[in-house]
Write a structure and sequence with these properties.
Blueprint lengths: L1 E3 L8 H5 L8 E5 L10 H11 L19 E6 L10 E4 L7 E9 L6 E5 L1 E5 L2 H8 L10 E7 L4 E2 L11 E2 H12 L6 H4 L2 E2 L2 E2 L2 H7 L3 E2 L12 E2 L2 E2 L5 E3 L8 H9 L8 H16 L3
Parallel strand pairs: 2-5, 5-8, 9-10
Antiparallel strand pairs: 1-16, 3-4, 3-7, 6-8, 11-12, 12-13, 14-15
Helix pairs in contact: 2-4, 6-7
Length: 283
């Protein structure tokens, strides 16, 4: 059975992806939209484990410190109502190399999760406006965004064990949705590399051996697309009772849209082996 995502690695994933001598990004989860208390300690632990997929990235993200005439508005999908109106937050402060991700839940529809990058508008000095771009003048993505999970589904939150029959693996969905927050399928940097129904990023083409086929929405890999013997994390579906993480092709796309510090293929092969062994424990 396949579930639409909209979409573990072991806990040591964070250290495996760390880049020596360079500052890594931090994903700061904001639970202020979790009015029902769905995000228990187990759910938060799984979400933090998913975030480790990306915390080896080493882009230099400037701090955003509004004040006086320097003001801005962050716009993002409402994580408590992802199919409703967007939310605006004024004058959010962000530390250097930190991304803010708002989280919530929904119950409508058959999707497991929904996620996307945030937009922004601002006014003030030219130096302040430049900080809002955080080193990428082509996109409004680098401050963060929001993700939401369907609380009506049957979930598996435990990291040391893989999902059992009938369980949707929360880690797998969280990795996928965070990929969208960081720009996969959701940004101008992505759109610029889409040609017809394929993705033409240099690193992705090298990893796949040609232009990479996309799903009909042009925001996911083609359903069932494989990389290094593993199903990609950023295709639009997850098989119930299974777990998957980022593959070499998924990481290549992140490199193509401007992220640095992407792990080397040798590290990915080791992590894929650990992921495969972990998932087998519950079968």
């Amino acid at each position: 059975m396949r579930s639409t995502l909209s979409l573990p690695l072991v806990v040591t994933l964070a250290s495996a992806l760390a880049v020596t001598g360079e500052a890594a990004i931090v994903i700061d989860f904001d639970y202020s939209y979790d009015s029902g208390g769905w995000y228990t300690s187990d759910v938060k632990a799984a979400l933090n484990a998913a975030a480790a997929t990306f915390t080896g990235f080493t882009n230099s993200l400037t701090a955003i410190t509004p004040g006086g005439s320097n003001t801005w508005t962050a716009t993002f999908m409402n994580p408590s109502d992802p199919y409703g109106a967007d939310v605006n937050v004024d004058d959010l402060s962000l530390a250097t190399n930190t991304l803010k991700v708002y989280v919530g839940t929904f119950t409508d529809g058959g999707s497991l999760g929904v996620g996307g990058n945030g937009g922004h508008s601002g006014s003030g000095s030219s130096a302040f406006i430049n900080t809002l771009n955080r080193g990428d003048a082509t996109d409004a993505t680098r401050w963060g965004g929001s993700i939401s999970f369907n609380s009506g589904m049957t979930w598996h939150f435990d990291i040391p064990t893989g999902p059992g029959a009938g369980e949707n693996d929360f880690y797998s969905v969280a990795v996928h949705e965070l990929g969208h927050v960081l720009g996969f399928g959701t940004t101008a940097a992505w759109d610029d590399l889409v040609s017809g129904a394929t993705f033409t990023g240099t690193a992705s083409v090298a990893a796949y051996g040609g232009n990479v086929p996309l799903a009909g929405d042009l925001a996911h890999w083609q359903s069932g697309l494989m990389s290094g013997g593993q199903e990609t994390a950023m295709d639009p579906e997850l098989t119930v009772g299974t777990r998957k993480g980022f593959t070499a092709l998924d990481y290549a796309a992140m490199s193509d849209i401007g992220w640095t510090g992407v792990p080397e293929p040798a590290s990915l092969a080791l992590l894929s082996l650990g992921l495969s062994l972990l998932s087998r424990r519950r079968r």
